[in-house]
Amino acid sequence: MxxxxxxxxxxxxxxxxxxxTPMPAxxxxxxxxxVGVFGTVMSGLGKGIFASSLAKMLKDKGLTVAPIxxxxxxxxxxxxxxxxxxxxxxxxxxxxxxxxxxxxxxxMLDQNMSRLNFSTSGQxxxxxxxxxxxxxxxxxxxxMIPHVTGEVKSKLRHLAVASDADVVFIEIGGTVGDVxxxxxxxxxxxxxxxxxxxxxxxxxxxxxxxxxxxxEQKSKAAQLGIKQLLQSGIQPHIxxxxxxxxxxxxxxxxxxxxxxxxxxxxxxxxxxxxxxxIPEMIRExxxxxxxxxxxxxxDRVHPEAEERARVIWSDYLDRLRAATQTVTIGxxxxxxxxxxxxxxxxxxxxHSGTRCGVKVDIDWIEVSDMPLEDVAERLAHxxxxxxxxxxxxxxxxxxxxxxxxARTRGxxxxxxxxxxxxxxxxxxxxxxxxxxxxxxxxxxxxKHPVIDILPEQKQIEGLxxxxxxxxxxxxxxxxxxxxxxxNGAPEIRLRFRHRYEVDPRYIEQLEAGGLVFSGKAxxxxxxxxxxxxxxxxxxxxxxxxxxELTSRPLRPxxxxxxxxxxxxxxxxxxxxxxxxxxx
Length: 583
Ligand code: GLN
Description:
Bound molecules: glutamine
Radius of gyration: 26 Å
CATH class of the largest domain: Alpha Beta
Low-confidence stretches: 574-579
Strand order of the largest sheet: 11-10-12-13-21-20-19-16-17
Mean pLDDT: 91
Structural class: alpha/beta
Helix content: 25-40%
């Protein structure tokens, strides 16, 4: 019997049947295959990195891929999460605020994600409660199985229809054994059963311990983690072992034997110089071909497309490895002890460094506890400075002093969102003579609120999804540095996440002082990019947007590229003329 015949019978919801599997319109059984990625032993193993690398390998073969991250938490999105605890909030073009893994998918696949690629338990449960109120469950008690799991499967199949993907990659957040994600795992078990053999491939990430006191790798925690997955009814096809050093043959053999996974599909995912090396490691281990075999999609592969993509990617890696010179960029922020809160900024610098053939060393500058007098000494060795996005008042005056130093000493500067607003404040105070210039965000009663709340934000109460979010067009001023950075494009698209903006009443005064607003919202007086003219500074650029979110390995963001080029020029000034960057 064709395994898909039974799918049609599952679609009905009634009190006569235990099956509840709503099928989205247009679902073609057998068209889309599924790869499920689970984490065992501990969180933070890099499931997103592995899943996106594997997805890239399949995309390179000419297949269409669509990832989805399933989060266990009850928040509706990641917008209200503290970056200290959860890493940066990644904003999609459609305005969805989500987990930083979505950034990894966008970068690795060079593909924009949408809200269909992200789900939380909060979204699942609110959809169910809404249906319950509408009476959609036909008198049934609403249960974790089949209704909640049915909702999850429906979401996955909906993505399959909307993306027309050959393969949907499902990353389950958290660790096997968590209460929060248990129903996702059960939904995937059911999905594998319903879709039939050869439709799903399961990957378990695990961690191989190497206690210094023993001096050897130990596999027991990994074995127990996978045992827990097996208890949930999921037999992995592939196991990726995270470790600091390459995982020994002996340990891989033990894990293979214990979990019934063939030895050649137990993969050592040890630490490497860059996550962009992982796709190559996957190819060398033959895992991409294993997935194609498991899913029976060899006939959909385009070998020429694959070869083209392979050459482009190995060129990128060659450049990454060849970089010998190092430039130092300071990042002045308040979450600098948690690198994940600036994940996209770090990656954007890596992309631009690789393009310029240099390694970018990041110097984290914790401004929240830095006395102002120390700024000059602290920043003296830098080749460039970034003030990234941020909220609230802590560290603000320290950041403004850092910006003043960069502006007055010709230190290449890139301001991102808050770093844009603070650059405006610094300029207003120290160049335009507007003593007491500030932002109503951290000083509501300030004398000159050059940064004030956006008019559309004034009515909004509460913090969830309440900002100006997502992709918006930006019109660039012809002949400006910003326009040159973008090869003369009159309009570009950038991503935003902010509540405040430059108060239009101050624009004339700021411009008269010499500040150039080179990017604006096409139809509103919302200032989105500022710069100093080349005769005043080699590279002083800031944007109200978050260009770090749209930088890709093969297409580095132009604002970051400009900063790194300027940093290289400052690092080795050859002639006075060269010290100004040719962009
Ligand atoms: N706090 C500022 C605002 O809300 C900047 C936000 C940010 O840097 N993302 O406008």
